[in-house]
Amino acid sequence: MTTKTTATTGRGGLDAEEVRRRVRAFLAEHDPVTTDRAAFLRARFDAGLAWVHFPEGLGGLGAPRALQGVVDAELTAAGAPDNDPRRIGIGLGMAAPTILRFGTEEQKSRFLRPLWTGEEVWCQLFSEPGAGSDLAGLRTRAVRDGDAWTVNGQKVWTSNAHNARWAILIARTDPDVPKHRGITYFVCDMTAPGVEVRPLRQITGEAEFNEVFLTDVRIPDAHRLGDEGDGWRVAQTTLMNERVAIGGGAVPREGGMIGVAAATWRERPELRTPELHERLLRLWVDSEVARLTAERVRQQLAVGAPGPEGSGLKLAFARLNQAVSGLEVELLGEEGLRYHGWEMTRPETVDFFGHDAGYRYLRAKGNSIEGGTSEILRNIVAERVLGLPSEPRTDKDVAWKDLPR
Length: 405
Fold this sequence. Notes:
The protein has helices at residues 2-6, 16-29, 37-46, 68-77, 89-102, 105-117, 231-247, 257-267, 274-301, 309-332, 357-363, 374-385, and strands at residues 122-125, 141-145, 148-155, 166-172, 183-189, 195-200, 209-220, 224-225. By secondary structure, the chain is of the alpha+beta class. The strands form two sheets. A four-stranded mixed sheet has the order 1-4-5-8.
């Protein structure tokens, strides 16, 4: 891996050694031990060491994405603080790549730095209670009013809306055209008048999700991403990055959920049965296949944009999390039925490993819904990865306002 990374050269002759030199020079000027955390992160962004593949001036160096590992390794070894990526995952994994691709220069300059440093948290206003898995069937309306838009509607399953400063939002701006063509993409101020966030208590007892009501919310046209009516295409960039972020994260061998189950198996021999052993082995192999596939997709991503393969990763992630957490509960027997408590909390992050087996089992049920339902993802994999014929659609050329409801 080191040889491959060292040989990687980007624009301006940047290679691993040059990037390493820049990191060390940065650390010489900004001691992570004595520098304020927020000031350190801002300086890191300004030095181009946030996302090395982003353009200069926007947190990057215009270097190959593969060189990010060089930066991270040097900073970790020096004890540098990170930007708490789990807390700001929606901003990092979904909003940032969309803003980079479709945003104006003013939007990039305004939003990317505080997004990366974690000073401004982001959420996603896509799903709606009336649209189900048919995201393009959304009913939230945005009506142009001079140099602003007035938005009315309801969104649901919004992670971290209670902590968010900004949201990526899609709304219907033209009901007279087919549903995929009448959508526009916006950046919504979550502190604006008319934005109401209500908690949705989940089966775990937590309320990390929310429903969001938008009543006459004013959004400046300057906060529109992409062209009017082109929101579906912009949203595809968000969704493809989201699925890679959820299902394609870097984990070591026997990391994640399977690692917890395997550790229990090794530490508690009295719980073992032949049937559970066979299931554990099958799931261990499946998890390793998924891990290696994710690594291959990340390497492809280093030289391009995410494609429909991310849907396959996310599909496998959900299936494995649910199967492994179910195995863990069965392995523990009566102990697996214990639960830490049902008090309602509103966490900033999802913590699979800071709770007991019962929590993992219950929380994993949501994995096949969030980030695209498994049913929809199977369609994407079938049509866009395997090239199978698409399902018949009777609403393709029908104006949204004429669709039955």
